[in-house]
DNA sequence: CCATAATCGGATAAAAATGTCCTCTAAAGA
DNA sequence: TCTTTAGAGGACATTTTTATCCGATTATGG
């Protein structure tokens, strides 16, 4: 829900990119996806689109790779979604009446409006920098859990499972 | 966004059903879709699922058709969505980290949470009765616009377009 | 009990989304 | 200049979603 698979790859890819390149060095795809579950070849296609949309810069050949076209805090979720899916059309009527829009609202339309507005705000204000930071925090979190699990394993060596 | 095509058909179909059967008489598919853009055969499949999910009752043969399995105000959007897509998984991390959930949240997760909660509330509180009422209001609205357009047409008979 | 009328359910098709592979092109460095 | 390295982009494969069709099944009414 909310995002398509392709869009999610774009989001994750950009978050990884922003998180890994401390300075503004370019990063290669192979490096970017290592340690993640991101599908290398498909992400390549997605990144091509992001390059054309102006969110990424790419360089061929040796020392090539990808860089953010502008600072991470200036790339929003909205930018990403629109680069992939085209203009966001959250304005459609929930009931599905095509002639329904902000100028000709149905009651349902108005009920849904505040939610839609919140979503829009979220998409417009959340940046790749936020995502990268979230990603790092989360990765640290996962690591801690793994360490604790390993410690537990040591104390219970009888159970050979996994 | 938000709903898949199939889910939207389900929503629209149920709204039509609730709006057309003043009492609890059953309605045939052909009658239901007449005057709408709902695809008859595909909706038939969708309705089969809703029957199995317990939202609709169906009757074969003469005098058959579909009825709501319970009062319109007791069928929520959530019920519909889950009948089609299975349990709603709005809880996935926006960043796409699979190990992220309410017990192991990442920062992004918490930012998105209030929106998700609002969406859930909307799905849980909006009923087929609401949708049917919205639909009727809207249909009346469209009719008024058509009439006004026709009046305008009479005053400008030179323009033969349409 | 037969003709009719309606959904059910299987088969199939068409379209869109997702995923993979391979060659071309551009850039860097020896 | 030649070789290596990286993304670009076309072709193709797979999967999922959406759509259509038709015979089977079930019920009604004469």
Task: Give a summary of the structure in a few sentences.
2 copies of one chain form a homodimer. Chain A is built from 6 helices and 2 strands; from the N terminus they run αααββααα.
Question: Could you explain the architecture of this structure?
Answer:
Two copies of one chain form a homodimer. Chain A has helices at residues 5-20, 29-33, 40-52, 77-85, 107-125, 128-155; strands at 56-59, 65-68. Chain A has six helices and two strands, in the order αααββααα. Chain A has 162 residues and is mostly helical. In chain A, β1 (56-59) and β2 form a beta hairpin. The first copy, chain A, has a two-stranded antiparallel ribbon with strand order 1-2. The model of chain A has no long low-confidence stretch (mean pLDDT 84). Chain A binds a DNA duplex (30 and 30 nucleotides) through α3.
- Report the count of strand segments of chain A: 2
State the helical fraction of chain A.
55-70%
Mean pLDDT score of chain A: 84
The radius of gyration of chain A is 20 Å
Could you describe the largest sheet of chain A, including whether it forms a barrel? Answer: 2 strands, antiparallel
Order of helices and strands of chain A: HHHEEHHH
Low-confidence stretches of chain A: none
How far do the termini of chain A sit from each other? Answer: 33 Å
Biggest protein-protein contact in the assembly: A-B, 45 and 45 residues
Shape of chain A: globular
Q: Trace the largest sheet of chain A across and list its strands.
A: 1-2
């Amino acid at each position: 829900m909310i995002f398509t698979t392709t869009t999610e790859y774009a989001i994750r890819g950009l978050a990884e990119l922003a998180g890994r390149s401390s300075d503004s060095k370019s990063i290669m795809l192979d490096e970017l996806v290592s340690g993640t579950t991101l599908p290398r070849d498909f992400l390549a296609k997605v990144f091509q689109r992001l390059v054309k949309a102006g969110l990424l810069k790419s360089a061929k050949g040796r020392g090539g790779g990808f860089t953010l076209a502008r600072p991470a805090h200036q790339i929003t979720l909205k930018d990403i979604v629109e680069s992939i899916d085209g203009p966001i059309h959250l304005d459609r009527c929930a009931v599905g009446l095509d002639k329904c829009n902000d100028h000709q609202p149905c009651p349902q339309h108005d009920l849904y409006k505040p939610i839609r507005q919140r979503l829009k705000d979220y998409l417009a204000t959340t940046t790749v920098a936020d995502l990268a930071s979230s990603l790092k925090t989360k990765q640290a979190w996962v690591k801690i859990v793994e360490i604790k699990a390993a410690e537990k394993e040591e104390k219970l060596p009888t159970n050979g499972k996994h």
